[in-house]
Design a protein that fits this description.
Layout lengths: L1 E5 L4 E3 L17 H7 L5 E5 L6 E5 L1 H14 L5 E5 L5 H14 L5 H13 L4 H8 L3 H9 L5 H8 L5 H7 L4 H12 L8 H9 L13 H4 L3 E3 L6 E3 L2 H21 L5 E4 L10 E3 L7 E6 L5 E9 H8 L17 H19 L3 H14 L16 H8 L2 H17 L20 H10 L3 H14 L6 H10 L11 H6 L3 H12 L1 H6 L5 H13 L29 H12 L37
Parallel strand pairs: 2-4, 3-5, 8-10
Antiparallel strand pairs: 1-5, 3-4, 6-7, 9-11, 10-11
Helix pairs in contact: 4-6, 5-6, 8-10, 15-18, 15-19, 17-19, 20-25, 22-24
Length: 608
Amino acid sequence: MKLDFLALDKLAVSKANMRYAKRPPDVSDILPTVRARGVLVPLIVRANGEPDAFEIVAGRRRFHAARIIADETGQAEPLPCAILDAGDDAAAIEASLIENLARLDPDEVTQWDTFTRLVREGRTVDDIAATFGLPELAVRRVLALGNLLPRIRAMYARQEIDRATVRHLTLASKSQQRAWLALADDPDAYLPTGYQLKAWLFGGQSISTRHALFDVAASGLAVVADLFGEDSYFADADAFWTQQEAAIEARRAQYLDAGWADAVIVPPSEHFQSWEYEKAPKRKGGRVYIDVRASGEVIFHEGYLSRAEARRIARGEQVEPPAKPPRPEVSGPMQAYIDLHRRAAARAALLAHPGVALRLMLAHAIAGSPLWSVRAEPQTARSDETRESVETSRGETLFDERRRAVLALLGFSPDEPTVVEGRPEGADGDTLAAIFWRLLDLPDAAVMDAVAVVMGESLAAGSAAVEAVGLHIGLDMADWWQADPAFFELARDREVLAALVAEVAGEAVASANAREKGKTLKRIVSDCLAGENGRAKRERWVPRWMAFPPAAYTQRGGVGTVRAHALAEAARAPVEQPAPPAPDAGALSPEPECEPVPEAAEPAPLAA
């Protein structure tokens, strides 16, 4: 092999090149580098049998980039080439493969080391971006890693921390970085990473400078910049709000001077709900609503009136402008501070009051909240016969009686279809709090009955949870179900019907009727279950699908209860039970232990 510079017109792409194709390749990533510095890495070529002609084994994209530059400038620079010995196809293929496999993209830490050396040599960010064909922002991101302690850079190079964590660590001072590394060294400490790291650095609230309505540079406020060049935040949230509120008042005055009927400031504790308003132009009394968010963002909604006001104006009535809301006593950041501390104290106190916590959890499950979403099982069915069968079943009748008793206990209307998502009659204020207060007045036994009803309403049909409950309790479906016309209407598979006949009447009867129609097989099963037409009565029969545990009649699969049972069993892992904790003398009065209920026993009625 020898090195030489060869003219473009003497080169062509070889079919031995692993990237050989008739369509020109995409060279947009290397074109800026070739344009700025030319082709620096030699192409691997070999003679193709023509005088002074060579074919490219490796370097096709560099060759095409050089041709584009030649077309742009009108000058074709010779390319550096490594010329293989003639006649060795295997060596040519290996060279092409090795060159392409060996060309791995360097990691960002390696790039930082290289870019830093170039900066020391006098290269600017623009020079580096042009040379390597990178956006200027990408170069600045890599150089920003220089703000990190060497150990953090090493952790990033070893992929022990992700890009989001590194990005937020560039916001940290050196002392904060050392504190973060100390947490990383402590196996028992919580180590904030990713977006949790930003909250850790700013003490909970971080306000981006892009939300400021004032000139950040002229404000003199301390700003912590993301050295990746994308984000920056105010170091002092209270100082930000002082200037932001002054800017909001100034913008409000500008709107009033411009002739708007009013400019209403919506504080962070509230929200501008657009569906409660209608568009109205300035000449028809439209207002501006200035929606201030706790994040610092301010949104200006121009030309709105409440729907009630819009209807009154349409009727020709006079509308008085609303009174200006007073400035809140507590700022948004202070309110967040207060709320988070009170929540921390309340949840810690609940640890000593499990009975109160249970009632609060039940209130959440009934009423819902921004963090809770519990829905009642819709019990959807395709046929009216199925719906009627379920509604008139023993289990549904008994559960409905218990539901009505719980509705009465909680002060709900007896017409409420479910306890879940219900609301006490005549309750003012927050529904969740109203239910919680009522539950606190109930004895433990009544609360546990309400828990059972709410859980029953929200128990998903066909789920593994149903299987787990049935298996744990030892549920016998014969106590709760018997075959009805809806069951026989839905049983249509002839192979299954034959298996049912064998199960209730015996193999001899099944064999004798093997060729009969499905209608005949159904009548045989029905006669056996009723003890009619000379058939021996089969007591307490339940098809395999409905039993606990369920089973199939064929090898074809497709039985939902069998699949759900398999999921429930797979989730049952042996767990070593810890010793029960010693009773706490300061805790609530102990709750009565739950005793197993007999399988067919009627639940005791609730006291209203």
